[in-house]
Amino acid sequence: MKKNPGMLAALGLVICSGLAFAEVEGDAERGAAAAGVCTACHQADGSGKNVPDGESWPRLAGLDAAYIAKQLHDYQSGERSNASMMPFANMLDEQQIADVAAYYASLPATQGAGGEDADEAMLKRGKQLAERGDWSAYIVSCKSCHGPGNRGAGEVFPGIAGQHAGYIKAQLQAWKAGTRNNDTQDLMGSIARRMSDDDVQAVAAWLAGQKPVAN
Amino acid sequence: MIRTLTYAALSGTLLFSANATAEDKTTQQYIDTLAELGYPAPEENELVHIPPTMEDLEDAKLHPELKRVIRRGHDLFTNTQQLRGENVFNNMNCSSCHLGEGRMPFSAPIWPAAVTLPGFRGKNAHVNNLEERIAGCFTYSMNGKPPEYGSDHMVALSAYHQWLAKGVPVYPQQPIYGRGFPAPERPEELSYARGEAAFQEKCSVCHGNDGGGLRVDGQTVFPATWGDMSNNWGAGIVRVFTAAGFIKNNMPLGQPNSLDDQEAWDIAYYMSSQERPQDPRYTGDVKETLEQTREPFHKHSMYGRTRETDGHVLGDHRNLGDKPFLKPDTVRPRTFE
């Protein structure tokens, strides 16, 4: 992938609410120590956990460091709200956020769970939404922003292939309801609001079963 | 915005159907969905066609081999990068500009080409068939070299176009609803500075602040809006009104018609004032090239003009991007003599 220094600068301006974040260099080794508070939910290997009847904990392993850092900053500022996450995010300082982000980004991505019970028709619909979208309802494919195989694109669009179905479902429902809105220009919200509950279920189930990394 | 619709469902495609009422309802739903997205309702005499999907193809009564070729055409259309270095020399896919797999109205849907060609094209001043029209896209928008006429790739792409036009009368007399990238009314003044600011605010998260776009694992996620990896100076979208129409009707992705007309035009003007690979019709001199192509084409673009911010003459260079030649041999006159 071509690194684009201009792009990074622009993202710093647009995505973060200040330029300071982008300048803190993360250290994965220090991050391993600082991530002690995260492992109860996100696990030592960053695999998180799909919790069918409760709040699923997302896989962090292998996600883009800048994306993780941005989410932590958003929890601190209230841009993104989650009762479980907020106290932990608030325990981290700027350096620790960068370090923890670098640490989880460095871990090998693990496989998601939660799509095992989906039937063939549901998986077919999920695959369609993920790879081609449903333009009759102006639902753009996940892949058009989340990249090839939905494995993530740059710092803004996280990998969602192999993410836990419970987490994807909860997030899409939150985008739909407007309780999550920390995206750039409502890019995710505007799509999520056009998705039915069945669509959300289907795409979550399908994505959970996909490989989080390229072969 | 939901508009009161006066559309009478008179499309030629639908009128003679045995299930006219059911299809009228489908058409109305289609129009309602588009209206909610801010698109205008069809004029009373406009032809409204809902192109079939790839799922419809599986159920269609067509020879299995034809289905296979149409699927191949769809695959080439949505992943044109598989022809990189052979026919394509930039980061574009056909579907980068023709959204929704070439099916979306107001996003230059591709099926009209299958029912209006062979036809006269002002751009090259002769009658073009569908293959020559597709060759034009490869020559300019893909900054490339078209697949040979009659080749497997050309037949597959043509078949996909024709499949999407299924049921539409050939050479329709009615105007086509949602054809091309209809431009909003041009505002009195266009501003480079406003366009730049709007681009940085609303476009750069995907396309980069240098317009370079984003590629991941050798695949294009967000296409380059200018520069070596974008379309060359001969592509239709370098005309400012075409770019404004594309932007207004389709960008940001997932939010059509969200920009106001002034913003869409300002962004188009800013984008159109950046460099890109040379027009394959280049004669070796930008002024001469401009003179030869002005009337049918470049009078609508910034080619050969002096950029107001730094005095740079746009298109005054020999940069071909990644392409090792200027002009593919498909760019040629026809005389029918």
UniProtKB/TrEMBL annotation, chain B:
Keyword set, alphabetical order: Heme, Iron, Metal-binding, Signal
PROSITE patterns tied to this protein: CYTC
Region span, Disordered: 294-337
Domain (Cytochrome c) ranges: 80-197, 190-275
Signal peptide, first to last residue: 1-22
InterPro entries xrefs: Cyt_c-like_dom (IPR009056), Cyt_c-like_dom_sf (IPR036909), Cytochrome_c-type_DH (IPR051459)
One GO molecular-function entry: heme binding
Keyword Flavoprotein: no
Pfam families named among the record's database cross-references: Cytochrome_CBB3, SoxA-TsdA_cyt-c
SUPFAM superfamilies for the chain: Cytochrome c
Basic and acidic residues composition bias: residue spans: 305-337
Keyword field contains Nucleotidyltransferase: no
Name of the protein this chain belongs to: Cytochrome C
